[in-house]
User: Which sequence fits this backbone?
């Protein structure tokens, strides 16, 4: 009897089954890999903000005040007006760069070094120059006469604007005796695809939102935020549906995405509070919760929320937009 030799290899059906199994496994594996990568990027972002918040606390301990969104540095060759990232360089172990700023200006023929601590890994920032994808809490920037409001936001203008308003400084004691450092935002991401480039930390004159994303806020109804070049109000962001990761302008000339926190992380942004702790702030946050976190000294009286800016309006004040008509106490689950 002649025996048929044993067959080797696969039939077409077997090959197709193997390919289908491999495809299914890849389909299951790739999302898990992407999720792991995003988790790693978000952890890096969280660590960046944590280090920056600790640098602010160390700065305040030394200077007895917080850095401003503009600051005065008088040097031998002139006066510079850098924003808060430059002021934090010594606390971030880059005193070598800060010493150049202390001379009054950064050399025009030299580019400041790239610093990964100022960049979220999910942003589109190029690893060259001095990109900045984080922003400081500027509040609404309102004035009482020529005085900047210290109960509204955290980063003030340490330079002033002549007769319009005077320079001012903030400290952690004022925040702690107000709403408390654990309930007051310090930093946030502001780097989704709608925020225009270049966003840089080395601007001499201060953070103008059209090209530097150094601040986030809530309103431009006051004098100071108009310097940022932002045309927005929190009420417009509410009309657009959200105040975090707001991507739709609700009125002509309104660029809410320039003012509010934003990121490329799905579902929210990483933020740091004035006491140094970090949180992933969900983009489903209610506007009045965001407003309470933005202010450093909010108050409730006679059926409305205010700050010491006493900003009231037809809607009952920006702290009352979309808010309950009774005193509201922040819950950690809200954000």
Assistant:
């Amino acid at each position: 009897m002649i025996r048929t030799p044993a067959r080797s290899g696969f039939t077409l059906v077997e090959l197709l089954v193997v390919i289908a199994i491999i495809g299914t496994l890849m389909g299951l594996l790739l999302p898990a890999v992407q999720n792991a990568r995003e988790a790693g990027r978000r952890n890096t972002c969280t660590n960046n903000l944590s280090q920056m918040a600790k640098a602010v606390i160390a700065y305040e301990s030394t200077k007895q005040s917080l850095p401003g969104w503009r600051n005065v540095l008088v040097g031998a060759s002139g006066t510079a007006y850098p924003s808060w990232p430059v002021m934090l360089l010594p606390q971030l172990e880059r005193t070598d760069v800060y010493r150049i700023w202390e001379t009054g200006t950064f050399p025009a023929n030299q580019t400041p070094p790239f610093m990964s601590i100022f960049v979220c890994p999910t942003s589109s920032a190029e690893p060259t120059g001095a990109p900045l994808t984080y922003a400081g809490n500027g509040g609404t920037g309102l004035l009482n006469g020529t005085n900047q409001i210290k109960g509204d936001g955290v980063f003030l203008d340490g330079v002033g604007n002549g007769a319009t308003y005077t320079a001012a400084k903030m400290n952690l004691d004022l925040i702690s005796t107000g709403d408390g450092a654990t309930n007051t935002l310090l930093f946030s991401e502001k780097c989704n695809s709608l925020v225009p480039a270049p966003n840089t930390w080395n601007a001499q004159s201060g953070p103008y939102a059209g090209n530097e994303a150094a601040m986030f806020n809530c309103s431009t109804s006051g004098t100071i935020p108009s310097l940022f070049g932002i045309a927005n109000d929190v009420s417009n962001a509410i009309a657009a549906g959200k105040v975090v990761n707001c991507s739709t302008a609700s009125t002509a000339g309104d660029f809410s995405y320039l003012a509010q926190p934003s990121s490329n992380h799905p579902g929210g942004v990483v933020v740091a509070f004035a006491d140094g702790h970090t949180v992933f702030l969900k983009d489903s946050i209610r506007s009045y919760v965001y407003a309470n976190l933005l202010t450093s000294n909010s108050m409730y009286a006679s059926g409305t929320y205010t700050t010491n800016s006493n900003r009231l309006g037809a809607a009952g004040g920006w702290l009352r937009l979309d808010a309950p008509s009774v005193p509201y106490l922040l819950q950690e689950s809200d954000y």
